[in-house]
Amino acid sequence: MFEMFERLSGGQTILLIILIGVSGSAVAEVVRAFFKHRDPPERSQEFESRLDDRLKHLEQSMEAMALDIERIAEAQRFTARLLAEPGAQASGAAPTGEPGTRVRNVEGAHVGG
């Protein structure tokens, strides 16, 4: 097996050693890069605190939007209930904003100034 190394001249031996060294370091770099990208990067304390603040802000915004959506849904249910009452459109009833109450038009009444 080592017989081929005996036939190499001094320059060829040096080239072979350089080739083996370059190949070994290239393989080592590929292996290092693989394991470097495999592990998650270390996060600093400042990054973690900023991330926590952003998540808290996002959570508060979502809660505020959920409350607004619930209010809109309740207003739609109230309006639908008023419109579904018998005689609501025929009598000219206008919603006052309070459930169960209506303001009725009175003939001859002046509205406004």
Please give a quick description of this structure.
By secondary structure, the chain is mainly alpha-helical. Helices cover 65% and strands 4% of the residues.
Task: Give short descriptive properties of this protein.
113 residues; mainly alpha; 2 domains; two-stranded antiparallel ribbon; 2 strands; 65% helix; disordered C terminus
Question: What are the SSEs and their pairings?
Answer:
Elements lengths: L2 H4 L3 H29 L6 H40 L9 E2 L6 E2 L10
Antiparallel strand pairs: 1-2
What would your notes on this structure say?
This protein is mainly α. It folds into two domains: about 10-40; about 50-105. It is about 65% helix and about 5% strand. The protein has three helices and two strands; from the N terminus they run H-H-H-E-E. It has helices at about 5, 10-40, 45-85; strands spanning about 95, 100-105. A two-stranded antiparallel ribbon has the order 1-2. Strand 1 (about 95) and strand 2 form a beta hairpin. It is rod-shaped, with a radius of gyration of 41 Å. The model is unreliable at about 110-113 (pLDDT under 50).
Share of residues in strands: under 5%
Shape: rod-shaped
Query: How many β strands by DSSP?
Result: 2
Average pLDDT level? 78
